[in-house]
Amino acid sequence: MSADLDLSPPEVPEPTFFESLLRYGLFLGAIFQLVCILAVIIPTSKSHEQDEASEQAETREPSKKVKGAMPQVRQKPKKESKKKR
């Protein structure tokens, strides 16, 4: 009975070049996504501190005025409705 059982590992073909390329591409894509997610999360917490610091600087120096172009508000012309016949 023990002669009938084959306990050798199954034959697994070596990965082709395309399979290796695909595997490493997926790893690089996952790392890139993690970097992008961290880039979104980390600066947002620092920007609040910078906003608070800039507000404190503005309250200390009230004589300085910020000159900037005021955004122009454009209103779309109203479309004339067609008369019902």
Automatic annotation (TrEMBL):
Question: Which family, according to the similarity comment?
Answer: Belongs to the UPF0239 family.
Q: What is its main location?
A: membrane
Name listed for the protein in its UniProt record: Protein MANBAL
Q: Which domain of life is it from?
A: Eukaryota
**What Pfam families is this protein classified in?**
UPF0239
> Which key words tag this protein in UniProt?
Membrane, Transmembrane, Transmembrane helix
| Organism of this sequence | Chanos chanos (Milkfish)
Q: Give me the stretches of Basic residues compositional bias.
A: 75-85
The record ties this protein, via InterPro entries, to:
UPF0239
Its gene is manbal
Q: Does the keyword Transmembrane helix apply?
A: yes
Please give, as recorded in its UniProt entry, the membrane topology of this protein: Single-pass membrane protein
Give the UniProt subcellular location, in the record's own words. Membrane
Q: Per the record, GO CC terms?
A: membrane
Look up keyword Nuclease and say if it applies. Answer: no
* UniProt biased composition (Basic and acidic residues): 46-64
The transmembrane segments are 20-42
Region Disordered: start and end of each range?
Answer: 46-85
